[in-house]
Amino acid sequence: MKYFCWCVLVVLWAFVPVHFLQAAQDTQPAKDSGSAKDTREAQHVQDDVLATIEQAVKQYKAGDLAGAASNVDYAAQLIRQKKSEKMKALLPPPLAGWQAGEASAQAMGTAVFGGGVTVSRKYGKGSSTVEVEIVSDSPVLQSVMMMLNNPMFAGAGGGTLETIKGQRAIVKYNKGNHSGDVNIVVAGRFMVTVKGQRVDRADLVAYAGAVDYQGLTKY
């Protein structure tokens, strides 16, 4: 346990010099007053992370391993929250003629299915509805991804293997009730799911192709 905590703290502490440099830069006079609010909010989140990591280091040095582990988990959760907010930008805008709701983000701690980040957005046009969801960093995804990458599994339930925007996808569509879903595994770490009700197959696939996959791999 002691060795594990030390390894985690060393990894997290590696980020501290970068954030200190950023903090020093932020003390310079602002050149763009229009972005001052965003800068303050971002710095507040960074300060929360740094303060928690610093507290964890102090607790570890003092022999309080339980407290150090708790603060390490808390700092990791703050980082996941920041990541989830950035990932919302990767969700596609509405197609022509469609309306879109606000993108939502959820960062789960390690106690919930091993942790992970989920972002999603709902779209509508008349009675047609589509939801795009991106899940990352969850250990539970590994078993799901193994099944999705299996061609035999892809054919179950009428699914077909297709390539969408350079990504291997499993597309399932029911012509009877005009509903279906698209599942795409990206870089072995992300799962993109597009679900639609009372929707044309072309629109379902179009939403799957509108996700920013190049940007996703940077996370």
List strands and helices in order, with pairings:
Blueprint: H1 2-13, H2 16-26, H3 36-61, H4 65-87, E1 99-100, E2 104-108, E3 116-125, E4 128-136, H5 140-148, H6 151-155, E5 160-164, E6 167-174, E7 179-186, E8 190-197, H7 201-209, H8 213-216
Antiparallel strand pairs: 1-3, 2-3, 3-4, 4-8, 5-6, 6-7, 7-8
Can you describe what's shown?
- The two termini are 29 Å apart.
- The protein is elongated, with a radius of gyration of 21 Å.
- By secondary structure, the chain is of the alpha+beta class.
- The longest helix has 26 residues.
- It is 45% helix and 25% strand.
- Helix 1 runs antiparallel to helix 3, helix 2 packs antiparallel against helix 3 and helix 3 packs antiparallel against helix 4.
- Strands 1, 2, 3, 4, 5, 6, 7 and 8 form an 8-stranded antiparallel beta sheet that branches.
- It is built from 8 helices and 8 strands; from the N terminus they run ααααββββααββββαα.
- The protein has 2 domains: 84 residues, no CATH class; 126 residues, Protein Transport Mog1p, Chain A, CATH 3.40.1000.
List keywords for this structure.
2 domains; Protein Transport Mog1p, Chain A; disordered N terminus; alpha+beta; 45% helix; 219 residues; elongated; 8-stranded antiparallel β-sheet
